[in-house]
Amino acid sequence: PNTLVSNFVTSIIEDSRGTFWVGTWGNGLHTMDRESGTFTHHPYGPNASDKLSARFSEPQAEAEGGLRFIHEDNQGALWIGSYGIGLNRYDLETDKLISFESDPDDPTSLSSNNVWSMYQSKDGTQWVGMIPAGGFNKIHSTQRPFEHFTLTPMHPNNFTNIIDVDRSGILRVN
Known about the structure:
Helices cover about 0% and strands about 40% of the residues. The protein is built from no helices and 14 strands. The strands form four sheets. It has a four-stranded antiparallel beta sheet, with no helix packed on it. A four-stranded antiparallel beta sheet has the order 5-6-7-8, with no helix packed on it. It has a four-stranded antiparallel beta sheet with strand order 9-10-11-12, with no helix packed on it.
């Protein structure tokens, strides 16, 4: 019970408060006690308000399955991206969670529930990359709307794996 639920580690981050977070494939969000080396698992609960992790369905391991990244924004909130259930923002100060999911009937929602990458620019703007065919989204605040962008038609599947800024300050998406 005090180990990782999977050895497939997808993300590691130490937040600004010194908490060590580890994300794994397969419902795996954990915090680590540095003194004992043990982990506390924060599982996904479909009816829980604290569904920080990502659900995992063994028969659909490729379709739904796990955390892709853990990112701390410049306000000290954690953003947890998953493959299958979208994006969660967890405010460590207030212990509140906001979940963002794609809704095909709402053009201001997240463009895909398969969230693959995230970048925060110096001005605080959040950029979120999606797969497949999700392009990337710009988050203006902790609420909707999401601004959707797609890659060039020549880019296969609009797969956004990496978002970063080059030395000139130009946003680069790959």
